[in-house]
From TrEMBL:
<dbReference type="Pfam" id="PF00072">
    <property type="entry name" value="Response_reg"/>
</dbReference>
<dbReference type="GO" id="GO:0006355">
    <property type="term" value="P:regulation of DNA-templated transcription"/>
</dbReference>
<dbReference type="InterPro" id="IPR011006">
    <property type="entry name" value="CheY-like_superfamily"/>
</dbReference>
<dbReference type="GO" id="GO:0005524">
    <property type="term" value="F:ATP binding"/>
</dbReference>
<dbReference type="InterPro" id="IPR036097">
    <property type="entry name" value="HisK_dim/P_sf"/>
</dbReference>
<dbReference type="GO" id="GO:0003677">
    <property type="term" value="F:DNA binding"/>
</dbReference>
<dbReference type="InterPro" id="IPR001867">
    <property type="entry name" value="OmpR/PhoB-type_DNA-bd"/>
</dbReference>
<keyword id="KW-0808">Transferase</keyword>
<feature type="transmembrane region" description="Helical">
    <location>
        <begin position="383"/>
        <end position="403"/>
    </location>
</feature>
<dbReference type="Pfam" id="PF02518">
    <property type="entry name" value="HATPase_c"/>
</dbReference>
<keyword id="KW-1133">Transmembrane helix</keyword>
<keyword id="KW-0902">Two-component regulatory system</keyword>
<dbReference type="InterPro" id="IPR016032">
    <property type="entry name" value="Sig_transdc_resp-reg_C-effctor"/>
</dbReference>
<dbReference type="Pfam" id="PF00486">
    <property type="entry name" value="Trans_reg_C"/>
</dbReference>
<dbReference type="InterPro" id="IPR003660">
    <property type="entry name" value="HAMP_dom"/>
</dbReference>
<dbReference type="InterPro" id="IPR036388">
    <property type="entry name" value="WH-like_DNA-bd_sf"/>
</dbReference>
<dbReference type="InterPro" id="IPR003661">
    <property type="entry name" value="HisK_dim/P_dom"/>
</dbReference>
């Protein structure tokens, strides 16, 4: 039986997985809701053990999406939320059971076995077929194209994982966890070696490659053949060239055939003119003699000439043509026919009535067989086909060469980008040397690198400033404890030390709280709640709170304007309080501190204005850096501005 645990607490998930594995189950572990949903939708499990309070996507939404997608895998909720309302909500969403934390593992195991006995889950596939690869999961046998392939147990497990997850990119960490049940160390190439050995048995002896390593994404992928841009363009160019050349060849062939037919009818018309000249003058017997002498040496043309009384003057026509001549219409002038005979041959027929100089008429029927052109047309077709194939191959080869040569700047750009690492963020791509089509891409990437470099520098400075903030209380506690423990002390001395440590711990807790607020402010979607907030009410409550401090420092507090936003009330309150605290601390006595609220053009602006000693020019760029400490002062700038900008989303 295969189970899926979705639990964000590492120790709880690890212990659950260990206990269930020891109970004889195959267990996958996901640490957040999105990963759990992905595994549940893409894998085949007999039971899902699901927590409720999960990062990225909570358990309620995970279950709702599973049921909405038609997945009826049994789900057991395992959560610290133990109220009746939570239990009812979980069961109504489609859960099969609900167990509250803390729990006894024996009870959990009993519930798991009970759910599995119901047999609601779909069994795993006994045969997995990927192209010509067949994996028999019952007998643990592998065949490809009818050929038996011998694999070690780990190689078989790895292949089964890739086959079941075909079409997906599997990270190395997931492969290591599923196959070896351990976390993958990114500094080793164990997974690469395993994939290479498996590929040697599965792919090397076959034309179609099933296992593809996707570089840069730390994963192996089954059944995802990839084509390079050069190959795609070459194939596309070859296809287009072949189609165009084939169409051109067909057009040339049809044009040549049409010209030959036109030549045949032209020759027949010339013979008609000759017949008219020969038939003018003389008796009927003389006409027949002249026609026989002039036309008798044209074996490739059939003639049938009769006078106006129906008397044949000259005829070399077949019975079919003679029959057609006897059924001539009364209004016959000139008619052209293309006859296809039973043997497949084609006759071009010209049938007309000719007036003579003496007032009499002749009815003439001439036919010419196009078999004389058949050999030429056949040779022409063969030569045309050879020319088209040769031209298509040449176009494909030349097109491939041109495409690869054209893509050299892209490969050069890729080589440059590959050389940029965390220690070389100052390097930039050569946008000026790139073609016009790639110049914008290079400039965009350079802009991204500049932002990454700036953010990386800010992160480094933030880490140093944060370390300083944390180091101070930790150093205080260590020093105090070490000094107190150096010699025996009185109870009052120990009590005083504990109180001091508690004060430092409170300071650490406040720092951690600040970090949590900053993290939430950086992710608007992760805000605990959004509501309509009237900023004038928030500012008024803060002005009332700071009024005593303002009176003590001889400062006047007032608010101007009003605005409303959608945001988190607590974070807005905290951000404005931070601004006011700094303004009061550095304002000159006897001056006003004014909070201005403005709302215009879909934006809200909060301005806190005070009069005091100007901020040094070298500090201004760092004014909104978090945990930045001005070395010459005893206070630290902790700017809420980025948080405020993120929380105040839109006006009312």
């Amino acid at each position: 039986m295969k189970l899926l645990i979705v639990e964000d607490e590492p120790k709880t998930g690890s212990y659950l997985r260990q206990g269930l594995v020891e109970a004889g189950y195959v267990v996958d572990l996901a640490c957040d809701g999105l990963d759990g949903l992905h595994l549940a939708q893409s894998g085949e499990y007999h039971l899902v053990i699901l927590d409720v309070m999960l990062p990225r996507l909570d358990g309620w939404n995970v279950l709702s999406r599973l049921r909405a997608g038609g997945d009826q895998v049994p789900v057991l909720f395992l959560s610290a939320r133990s109220s009746i309302a939570d239990r009812v909500q979980g069961l109504e969403l489609g859960a099969d059971d609900y167990l509250a934390k803390p729990f006894a593992f024996a009870e959990l195991l009993a519930r798991v076995r009970t759910l599995l006995r119901r047999g609601q889950a779909m069994p795993l596939a006994e045969r997995i077929v990927v192209a010509d690869l067949v994996v028999d999961t019952l007998r643990r046998r592998v065949e490809r194209n009818g050929q038996r392939i011998t694999l070690s147990p780990k190689e078989y497990t790895l292949l089964e994982l890739l086959a079941r997850r075909r079409g997906e990119v599997l990270p190395r960490s997931l492969i290591a966890s599923q196959v070896w049940d351990m976390n993958f160390d990114s500094d080793t190439n164990v997974i690469d070696v395993a994939i290479r050995r498996l590929r040697a048995k599965i792919d090397d002896d076959f034309v179609d490659k099933l296992i593809v390593t996707v570089r840069g994404r730390h994963g192996a992928q089954c059944m995802r053949p990839r084509l390079s841009i050069a190959t795609r363009l070459t194939v596309l160019f070859a296809t287009v060239a072949t189609v165009v050349l084939a169409a051109l060849g067909v057009a040339i062939y049809l044009s040549a055939r049409h010209d030959l037919v036109a030549q045949d009818f032209t020759e027949l018309e010339n013979k008609v003119a000759l017949i008219a000249d020969l038939a003018d003058g003389g008796a009927a017997g003389q006409r027949a003699q002249r026609l026989a002498e002039a036309l008798g040496h044209h074996p490739d043309i059939e003639f049938h000439i009769i006078d106006e009384h129906g008397t044949p003057l000259f005829s070399t026509a077949s019975p079919l043509l003679r029959k057609h001549a006897r059924t001539q219409p009364a209004d016959l002038v000139v008619r052209r026919h293309n006859w296809t005979l039973a043997d497949g041959s084609c006759l071009h027929v010209l049938h007309l009535r000719q007036p003579l100089a003496d007032g009499s008429t002749l009815t003439t029927l001439l036919a010419i067989d196009d078999a004389r052109h058949a050999a030429f047309l056949q040779r022409f077709r063969h030569l045309l086909a050879i020319a088209i194939v040769t031209a298509a191959l040449a176009s494909s080869l030349l097109g491939g060469y041109v495409v690869r040569r054209t893509l050299r700047p892209l490969r050069a750009l890729s080589d440059e980008a590959r050389q940029i690492t965390a220690g070389r963020l100052q390097r930039r791509l050569s946008a000026d040397a790139a073609p016009a089509e790639l110049e914008q891409l290079a400039q965009t990437l350079n802009g991204m690198l500049a932002r990454l470099q700036q953010d990386f520098a800010r992160l480094t400075e933030f880490s140093g400033d944060l370390a300083h903030e944390l180091r101070t209380p930790i150093t205080n506690m260590l020093t105090q404890v070490q000094v107190v423990l150096a010699h025996p002390r009185s109870n009052d001395a120990y009590r005083e030390t504990l109180a001091s440590c508690a004060e430092e711990l409170q300071r650490l807790a406040q720092t951690v709280s600040d970090l949590l607020y900053l993290a939430q402010a950086e992710a608007p979607g992760a805000l605990p709640s959004r509501e309509h907030v009237a900023l004038e009410n928030v500012v008024d409550s803060l002005l009332e709170f700071y009024s005593l401090l303002a009176e003590d420092r001889q400062l006047q507090l007032r608010r101007e304007g009003g605005a409303s936003v959608q945001g988190n009330r607590l974070m807005l309150h905290r951000a404005i309080a931070n601004l006011l605290s700094n303004a009061l601390q550095h304002a000159t006595a006897g001056t006003p501190v004014v909070v201005t609220l403005e709302e215009a053009a879909g934006q809200c602006r909060i301005t806190v204005h005070n009069s005091g000693r100007p901020i040094s020019a070298d500090i201004l760029p760092r004014l909104f850096d978090r945990f930045y400490r001005v070395m010459a002062q005893a206070w630290a700038w902790r700017s809420p501005a980025p948080s405020c900008r993120r929380m105040a989303v839109r006006p009312r």
